[in-house]
Amino acid sequence: MHIGEMGGCIEEEVDKYIRDAHCDFLPIYTDGSKQDPRTGRTSAAFSVPEYKVAAHQLEQRDKQLKKQDTLYREQVTKLEERGKRFYSAITESYQKASWEVSAKFRHYQINPVCADLQREVLKCYRENSGQTLSCSQIASLYLQCVSEARQSKMGPGD
Predict the structure, then answer these.
(1) Crossing angle (nearest 10°) for helices 115-127 and 136-154
(2) CA atoms within 13 A on the CB side of 58
(3) Which residue in 59, 81, 62 sits closest to 70, CA to CA?
(4) Which residue has the higher pLDDT, 55 or 25?
(5) How many Å apart are CA 73 and CA 80, to the nearest integer?
(6) Is 23 helix (H, G, I), strand (E, B) or coil?
(7) pLDDT at 110
(8) Residue ranges of E strands in 10-152
(9) pLDDT at 29
């Protein structure tokens, strides 16, 4: 092969490589400095590869997503703070109401009346099962004690 012929081959290979490598470029038609041989339209002196346009779009989308992420994180933080304040207020209100209710009923202490006689009656019934009449004297004393305690609580004339 002759060197001149090789030069033609190389030029063809370079042209093919440029066409293949730059087929994704997006021509920008503005100042009429060049003309696209395929369409006949005039174009600018430069072209922007489509992957650069896509990269720019992705960057813009990424910026939007970051802004939205920041906004959502701020909103979540605000909602969490609001929830904590609400929980704190509810807890405080519950504790106050609980304290008030327990304070209201604390002073009512029940002391069993005639507890000793009651124990003796129960003991007698256990020891004499089936013979309840043998415990009638202690049971009678217990009933009398309860009656006296009831009358003393009610006061005279009640």
Answers:
(1) 160
(2) 6
(3) 62
(4) 55
(5) 10
(6) coil
(7) 73
(8) 25-27, 34-35, 42-43, 47-49
(9) 45
**122 vs 20: which has the higher pLDDT:** 122
Q: Cα(121)–Cα(137) distance, rounded to whole angstroms?
A: 9
pLDDT tens track for 92-103 = 999 999 988 888
The residue to which tokens 């009346």 are assigned: 113
pLDDT of residue 130: 85
Three-state SS at 25: strand
Q: Residue length, the chain? A: 158
Beta bridge partners of 47: 27
Instruction: Determine the Cα–Cα distance for residues 69 and 78; give it in Å rounded to an integer.
Output: 14
Distance in angstroms (rounded) separating the CA atoms of residues 54 and 77: 34
Rounded distance between C-alpha atoms, residue 44 and residue 28, angstroms: 6
